[in-house]
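Thread: quick sanity check before group meeting

JM: Hey all, I'm pulling together slides for Thursday and realized we never actually wrote out the predicted structure for the chain we discussed last week. Dropping the sequence here so it's in one place. If anyone has concerns about the input, flag it before I start.
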Amino acid sequence: MRRLFLGVLMALVGFLQGQTPSERPTVLVVAGLNPDHGLGVRVAERLPAAVEKLAATDAELRAAMERVALWVVPTLVADQQASADAAPLRDLRVNQTPVDDDNDGLVDEDGPEDLDGDGIIATMRWPDPEGRLMPSKEDPRLMVMADASKGERGMWSSTTEGIDNDGDGLINEDGPGGVDLDRNFAHGWKERERAAGLSAPSEPATRKLLQQVLDHGRVAAVYVLGHRDNIATTWRTNDAAGGRAPNGVLRDDVSWSHALSEEMKGILEANDGADDWPDGGFHHWAYGQYGVPAFASRVAYRPELPADAKFAGGAAPSTSEGRWLWIADQRKNGFIPWKRIDHPTLGSVEVGGFVPRFAQTVAQERFEAIVAAQARAVAALIKALPELQVATIHSRSLGAGVFEVEVELTTRGQVPLFTASARKTRVVRPVLLELSIKNGTLLQGSARQLVDDLGPNGRKKFSWLLRCSGTLEVSVSAGSPRTGSASASLRVEGN
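JM (edit): ok, ran it. Output follows.
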């Protein structure tokens, strides 16, 4: 039986001021969606203390933490990382759910093997006249897709290290487990891809996470630590037409989302990005369906290379893979030199390539720097969330015991009260503005009004006509689960 581990609401000690985390808008941080991203889990476990440390010297963050809670989920399935770390070392994006990947009525019958006995499931390549790969001109240790438009012809094929266990002519097509939890959420879910699951969400862990988010009702932003990233490359803009689900950030959300993404990019020194097409990722669901700001970080970004970086052959690294290869050469532990071995069905093959999870393998000093940077990025998200305020409340006598009461609601923050996505999907409760009266009668205006948005740093005025009998007491409150609440009151002496 797998153990689900969904974390707890992390209240930063000293900043509660009588409120519990469940009463405040919440930033949700999720890691461990994939078994082979242990670095994200380790960073997530350190985040609450790191953010608390920042708040001790950052007055703006300390003030924000009086109204915003931090909820950290280090991993969805407690034993998932343990299974991924078992020998031999391998990349493993999927969980342990058995899946018939090759549709032959059997499950998990043809997985990878450590053919050379080095304790690592590496890459296997072999000459193949029908192959689509060719050695890279950047460095022949790398393989790239041949471009027929340039007259290139592929002469190699590759896969993970292994054999054809079930005799169907394919290698490693149905390995252990099968569902990538970070592709098992509804937004952009790929129906015909086995790794995405039988449905969205088909997995107990993803259903449990969604249920907790929906039950909590106050998640105001999401931040994911894992393989995904919409920070290094600015969050793409939606270009889906008609009634199709958006494939990027809606245009009314571009200004604030791109600005916040750029701020985080600077904090994290994020590079090596990729276009973030929605395909069932948790952050895709959080923005596209739940309507909150949602960012994903790959946690460890590629260090910058010196200007004179070159391979032994004289070429300068020019691609992402090439830059990582240069770094692997400097560290001397990230790339396995290709070596020939005899394969039972393919004949002579070469085994080698990048060490699994090499990019996540960091020294302790760099790990500490990553924790500190990720804490600053989360702090930036917390500070960006809107603060709802009753900026002013005042009255004006109109004579004969009649008064006009006027209130101005404002928001402060980089992010609007409700994203364009939230307004489009209507999954969020608007701000409820309520007027309470003692010793008076409402003549004009509604005592309960709904406010669906004020915009970033926005403001809006509301007014009522009241008849006073004695000392009029008026109070106004405004709020919603995702925005928090604000209130103000006044006393008016009748004529």
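AS: nice. Residues 149 and 460 are 58 Å apart (CA to CA). The two ends are 73 Å apart (CA to CA).
JM: adding both to the slides.
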